[in-house]
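W.,

You were right to be curious about this one. When I first looked at the sequence I had no strong expectations either way, so I just let the prediction run and decided to look at it fresh. Below is the sequence, 155 residues in total, followed by the output.
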Amino acid sequence: MSFRTAVGRTPAIQAHFRDGLQGVKSADRHRLRCRDTHCLRGSVDLDEALKDTHPGNPRWDYAIGLRRRNRRNEIVLWLEVHPASSLHVDEVLNKLRWLKDWLASDAPALKAMPGFFRWVATGSIAFRRGSRQERQIAEQGLRFPSRQIDLDDLQ
């Protein structure tokens, strides 16, 4: 299934689908690198799309659809842009739990697609590899935060 189709089957966000990276706030686009823009299948600002229906929930930031290189199938990058200190680990993990619950209950087409959960730091990363915080996030399927993501590497 394509990312566009999966978003179209998710009523809460279908009106928020944007081509390429247009669904990513301009202030966050510099955190993404992509040499092969043909791989971009669209994006959704989940935080914006769901703010009215889930106002008190810890909403995840973005969903970005990508076509894998030399393959027909598409994947989803679930991207959270957030400060990365030990004080913020619980916040990001709460957002991740919320996202997984939302996918299971409201977005089965998107949940069925292969995907990656990534955290991009808005500033310096204030905890170390091998730390308790890294173990906590790894247990939930999240990688160590990075300052930038190369979308070509996810394919």
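Here's what jumped out at me. Residues 3-154 form one domain. And, maybe more interesting for your project: The chain has six helices and six strands.

Coffee later to discuss?

I.
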